[in-house]
Amino acid sequence: MNAAIIALVGIQAIVLTPTAWCGILAFGSAGAILLAASIRLGQRVHLVCGLIYMILLVDVLFNFRHQLHGWVNAWMKTNQTYADRQPRQLVILAIILLGVCGSIAILRRVHPMDRLTWLIVAMTLGVSALFLLELVSLHAIDALLYRRVGPVLVIGVLWIFCALVTITATARLLKK
């Protein structure tokens, strides 16, 4: 089974690849420290970011984004729109990028935060955008995200990077 580990959850077996383990460790750790910081610091932004990381953790465990992607592809094939999906994918990709950039710009004006909190928000938006990019599944982006770095896919390395930056920034906030 190629270094995959199977966890039994109810009746369904979930295959946990090395990349999935990266997501579990990254999202679980970042989510936990953010939730703890939200209690200690009393700021809603840490709670929201922590909950986003926990949602991503659940997604990695149960593979929801790939199931949704499969359902959308099946629907497009049924409606004979699968072959010409690339223009729609490019529009969705542009919307995702504009959404992330727009969210950051709006948040900067509406909700003043210190640098470390901004870094946490940026990493949370970035890792969320990675999940949305996977859903869009543009072949050129998939080719980059699913390239192997040892036993792990590039996307797993990006998850770990975002989580480590988030964890480090949160720990520094908690030390203040």
Topology:
Layout: E1 5-9, E2 12-16, H1 18-41, H2 44-62, H3 64-78, H4 86-110, H5 115-136, H6 139-145, E3 148-149, E4 152-153, H7 154-175
Describe, in plain words, how this protein is organized in 3D.
- With 176 residues, the protein is mostly helical.
- The protein has one domain.
- The strands form two sheets. It has a two-stranded antiparallel sheet with strand order 1-2. Strands 3-4 form a two-stranded antiparallel ribbon.
- Helix 5 packs antiparallel against helix 7.
- The model has no long low-confidence stretch (mean pLDDT 83).
Read across the widest sheet, the strand sequence of neighbours is 1-2
Structural class: mainly alpha
Name the helicity range: over 70%
Note the quaternary state here. Answer: single chain
Q: Identify the overall geometry.
A: globular
Number of strand elements: 4
Outline the biggest β-sheet. 2 strands, antiparallel
Q: How large is the radius of gyration?
A: 18 Å
User: β content, as a range?
Assistant: 5-15%
Count of runs of 4 or more consecutive helical residues: 7
Question: Number of domains in the coordinates?
Answer: 1
Distance from N terminus to C terminus (CA atoms, Å) equals: 46 Å
The overall pLDDT, averaged over residues, is 83
Low-confidence stretches: none
